[in-house]
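Retro notes - structure team

What went well: the batch runner handled both jobs without manual restarts.
What didn't: labels got mixed up in the shared folder, which is why I'm recording both outputs here explicitly, each with its sequence directly above its tokens.

Job 1
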Amino acid sequence: MNLKTKLSDREEQILDDFLGRVRGGAIPNIEALDGFFAALACCPDLVMPSEYMPIIQTGETDDGALDFESMEDAEQFIESVNRHWNHVNQQLDSKEVYLPLLFEDEQGKVRANHWAQGFLLGTNLRPNIWPEIMDGENEGGAMVPIWALAYEHHEDPEMRPYDEPISDERREELVVGAAAGVMRMHRYFLKQRDLYTPPAGTFTHQGGKVGRNEPCPCGSGKKFKSAVVGVPCCTKPVRT
């Protein structure tokens, strides 16, 4: 499988089902994962899978963490996550347009709350870098629609952006503004990537399936079976 190939609709649903098995986790679905990866793709400092995969797989309690029923399950999950990470990167690196992956809720409405919350979670992985955007006079506006969508239903009413429910027209404006803001932030941080250590290489899967006691194909030296018990291996992403 080419890791640069975008997930099909069915594959997106399968990945969403995997994420839905995590109980009380920070990334409840693929929409939140897309926002999470958008923030990581913008950040000039590469966040490796060994750092973000535990966040994706961890539940509110140990019992709620993502576990796999088979080696095939583990391989499919890891491959799907890597392919979606690469797809988000490719959209932003193309400098054309970034389209957030958004889904309708039970009422058939696109809310984008999970996407925005996933994006903010992604910024928390490099808290020393993002204030440059968030507190900047020139670039801070790019975060405003993301904050508005993320905090729409915050448990603290003081954190909510509006006193009244967000209209369909305003929500559409916020979603468009959030997508444009991601592109803007990506361009801003792109100039700083040479200040950070570049990735050592890219991950390519060769040969057949990996055995439980064989080394992970990422080169981390860990046994691949660690993925089956919920402690992911360190597969290296492709980032151009």
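Job 2
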Amino acid sequence: MFWYNGKLIESQTLELEIDDPGLLYGATVFTTLRVYDNSLDSRLTYWQSHCDRLKLSLQTFDWRLPDEERLRQGAQVMMAHFPVLRITIFPDGREWITGRLLPNNLTQLHKNGIFATLAASEFVRCLPAHKTGNYLSAWLAKANAQKLNTQEAILVDAAGNWLETSTGNLWGWRDGSWWTPPLTAGILPGVVRGQLRDWLLKQHIVREEPWTPELVKGFEAIAYSNSVVETVPIHTVIQPTGKLECNPHHPCFQQLRMFFIAL
């Protein structure tokens, strides 16, 4: 089932006009959120932050804004069946909401971390400051990573600087502080990234610097974040120059987990 243009539809197919720009060019914007406590207003759901990010992109592209009441109604209908919602907006304001379950191995991912691989520099996201439907480069990067039996791809720029993963933002621990690439590097302003950054700023333990190949060598721990998985350690990164290994059980991860339970 899914919600589309004001209606709940019981189907596995969505009917679009053959000249729909969303179909032809990926001309949509979307956001993916996790519903906590069965409430859009829960602190960690960040409903308004997700809506604000959608609105910013729509205004930047001069697209029509969706009906806010109908958007919320659709989300409320869908969250009764799914804890994870993907909200897509078309240029004319149509809303499309799909749902899915949390990864069934999420607890193990939090505990033991994942393998990742560096993607080729050609796999750079289109319009990186916006979450558009043209997500082919990130999808290809992750698909290639999975062929190597790794779970995530790390996108890099032409100079080899690390940017973000195919599905989230990066965090690294060294010198008693958390480091994350700056938005000016050309990365998505993730909702969880923004909230977590602000929380760490209050504790004076976050730095935003480009992730050069030299910088990442000094990380004791690495993780990625998004609205679905929260934060997941990365214990091994496969690089052309060899493996970079970090401790997925480093005590610093308890600090990040506190964000998701702190009042």
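One thing worth noting from job 2: The helical segments are 21-25, 47-60, 68-79, 106-112, 136-147, 191-202, 213-217, 252-259.
We'll revisit the folder naming next retro.
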